[in-house]
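In keeping with the milestone schedule agreed at the kick-off meeting, the structural modelling team has produced records for the first pair of proteins. Each record is given below as a sequence line and a structure-token line. The laboratory manager (R.T.) confirmed that both were archived under the project's standard naming scheme.
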Amino acid sequence: MSVERKVRIRDVFSLAFWANYLAILLLTCWLPLTAMTIIAKNAEGKILTERVNYVRVYRSYIKVITGHFSGHATAVALHLLLSFAVCFSVWYLLLRWNARRQTPSEPENSPNDGN
């Protein structure tokens, strides 16, 4: 009977997990997660120009650190949570896959097979 090694929380939240999470955060911080629409109107209320500015995540981090939370805190929270969810899912699946690979399998020809 093969005993499967269970994946424990301490296995998932190891130093390597946090290093991987930090790497994912750093590699994805250039992605734009916030789009801000800028509209210029004249005195009558007619739209003169309209454009969309895409804000990269690292700029949102800078804004949140300096105290400008409007719109940027949501992008930072979304970036942190999505990166954590992806990192946790991949890490957990890899640990389960490695645990299954490392379990000893029973030999095909056992000594009591009657031969």
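The second protein of the pair:
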Amino acid sequence: MEIIFESPVKEALQRALTPLVENGADDLYLVCAEYKSSESSLRTDFNGLNTAKEYADDPKKIVILMSFMSKQGLLSIRPELAGLLCYKNLAFLQLPPQLVQIVTTYQMLKKGEKKESTLGKFAFEIEMFEREVSILRHDLHYAEADPERMVLWLDRAQKAGFTGTEKEIIEKVRNWERKTAGRFEGKYLEGVFIDFQGTLVVDGKINQKIQKKIEELGSDKQFCIISDSDPKNVQTKLKGFGFTCPILSKFDLKGAELEVVIDDFPEEKFRKEYGIIPKKYIQV
């Protein structure tokens, strides 16, 4: 068991959970969202979100993310949390939790009772990647003036997925934009992908035809909103309608094959405009 908390909470949790560890819970990872990963970091950086993702990417690990804020409160300022909560092996508890909550949550995750949303994970990974690009762009000016900082900067850029020579990596970071992303090119994604403006929402209201179509397709399907607008703006609007499903940019999906697409464009125009390949296309 690992506890990513600051003192004295860390020690208190270690004492309280000793019986659980003795019963074999060595795969449990408790992470505080507000954990300060360095002296220069702030609790409002919520570095624990990145740490929780790193652990949750290993399916053998059981992760319980905790915060002094409520789930909804944290979602309101760090919306990418919604994607993190889609992991099958991760759950959220508000601090301070009762010991029984930690135990029952661990047992629930251990038994595999939580259903995973693959599309939600994709949305979260893209959100975190965009955040990383923003940090890299901000730090580049300082790195170019200091060779030692440049070594660290290049290492971080490579971990984010940028490849090439130093010059090529710098140019890729500077020029990266969503419209040329195609992060899922060549992949097949299961689920129902619904266009936002003009399809799900028409004249500022939810399209009842789409609502009915969602019900017809069944609750066992994963649903995802797709748009050529900034997903953050779409997310804000979706909240007003009470929707909580993942959101992906159509530009991120360039070159991907999608199981079902629902859009107001004719299929030929949709394929040409976005480079997306629908297995089944429903025009509304």
